[in-house]
Give the backbone structure.
Amino acid sequence: NVRVSLPSIKAEHMDLETLQLMKACGQQSLTIAPECGERLRFTINKKVKDAEYFAFVERCTQAGIKKLKLYMMIGLPGMEIEDLEEMVRFVKDMQKHFQGKIYLSINYFVPKPGTEFAQHQFEKKKGKEQALFIEKALRSFKVKIPKLSRSYQEWRSLLHE
């Protein structure tokens, strides 16, 4: 009579047996954070290939997981239209490999002090454009994007810490 709920997992470390055990303990949905398309993902030092994510969602289907939430980011340093198009293809391909429902949480990149991107400026105009592109391109998915002003305020407050 144990229920397990994991807030977020590393897809590349989840084998079928682990997913089946999680399902047996009551886990109904899973959350992973691919962040962006593969090219940009590798530049931010998250070295997980698309193929690893596709294999993961296939294992999720085998284990009976019906809901998957993806955390993605826009406004990353160097993110261009090609990267957004790659992200859209990635999400659509994820759905092809998964028999459940995919939800998206798209967040604006907020540069943090003490990181390699600390000097990166928060670009409100670019963030707004990228959010509109993603919303339009992925309108068949449930997409949640926070208010741009909230992310901007977070960045401003970090500058003064």
Q: What stands out?
A: Strands lie at 29-35, 67-74, 101-108, 142-144. Residues 29 and 41 are 24 Å apart (CA to CA).
